[in-house]
């Protein structure tokens, strides 16, 4: 059975990692969609699709994941057509894992089986909180897998966020 999980992964954090670890126990193959792939270099979406591919691929190595596909997906500004858009871009799948209400609703309306995922330490394991810490020069590394922190450091990601915000670096 092949499953599908989508996120923006700005950045990929321990919450995503725990969800994916669990999903991988249940499916033979997993398609991971990188949503809002067209976005980068903003405070909400600092990292490019390519950088997010790196973060996820490195983290998956650590999970000893079986067959996984990481596919960037640009947004389309018409929710009623989004599921068809996704299906046209990724390998076929028969089950969707999500905790995002809009994603759940759209896939259910399209007749797909959707399983709700659990949240892990949502207060800290959250993109908004991690980006806030990066911006304010606080500790953020413990909220993401070590390999993801290495990717972010390798691209000088914190400096990017602070420069975009107009903060002194
Ligand atoms: P996200 O990275 O915030 O979250 C991804 C998934 O991880 C979600 O299911 C979320 O609930 C889960 N998660 C987050 N923190 C967690 C934690 N601590 N513990 C456990 N799980 C946690 O990404 P998102 O915003 O949900 O991604 C949805 C993507 O789909 C977006 O890019 C959005 O633009 C796209 N989308 C596009 C359209 C369109 O183009 N019309 C429509 C619907 C969705």
Radius of gyration over C-alpha positions, nearest whole angstrom = 16 Å
Query: What's the CATH first level?
Result: Alpha Beta
SS content category: alpha/beta
Mean pLDDT: 97
The distinct ligands, each listed once, are: nicotinamide-adenine-dinucleotide
Percent of residues in beta strands: 15-25%
Largest beta-sheet details: 5 strands, parallel
CATH H-level homologous superfamily name: HUPs
* Lateral arrangement of strands in the main beta sheet: 3-2-1-4-5
CATH architecture: 3-Layer(aba) Sandwich
Q: State the shape.
A: globular
Cα end-to-end separation:
47 Å
Q: In the residues, how many domains can be counted? A: 1
The name of the CATH topology is Rossmann fold
Low-confidence stretches: none
Q: In sequence order, what are the helices and strands, one letter per element?
A: EHEHEHEHEHHH
What does this structure look like?
This protein is an alpha/beta fold and 169 residues long. It has a single domain (2-164), classed as 3-Layer(aba) Sandwich (Rossmann fold), CATH 3.40.50. Helices cover 44% and strands 15% of the residues. It is built from 7 helices and 5 strands. Helix 1 (14-26) links the parallel strand 1 and strand 2 (29-34). The protein is globular and about 50 Å long. The protein starts with a strand and ends in a 5-residue tail after the last helix. The site of nicotinamide-adenine-dinucleotide (NAD) has 27 residues, from strand 1, helix 1, helix 3 and helix 4. Nicotinamide-adenine-dinucleotide binds at residues 6-9, 15-16, 19, 35-36, 75-76, 79, 82, 98-100, 102-103, 106, 117, 119-122, 125-127.
């Amino acid at each position: 059975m092949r499953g599908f999980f989508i996120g923006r992964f700005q950045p990929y954090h321990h919450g995503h990692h725990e969800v994916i670890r669990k999903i991988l126990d249940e499916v033979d193959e997993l398609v991971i969609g990188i949503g809002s792939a067209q976005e980068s270099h903003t405070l909400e979406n600092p990292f490019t699709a390519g950088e997010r591919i790196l973060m996820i691929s490195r983290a998956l190595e650590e999970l000893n994941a079986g067959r996984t596909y990481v596919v960037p997906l640009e947004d389309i500004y018409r929710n009623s057509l989004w599921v068809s858009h996704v299906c046209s871009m990724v390998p076929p799948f028969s089950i969707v894992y999500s905790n995002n209400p809009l994603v759940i609703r759209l896939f259910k309306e399209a007749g797909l089986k959707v399983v709700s995922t659990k949240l892990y330490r949502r207060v800290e394991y959250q993109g908004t909180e991690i980006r806030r810490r990066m911006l304010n020069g606080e500790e953020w590394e413990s909220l993401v897998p070590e390999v993801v922190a290495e990717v972010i450091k390798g691209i000088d990601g914190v400096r990017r966020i602070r420069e975009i915000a107009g903060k002194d670096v």
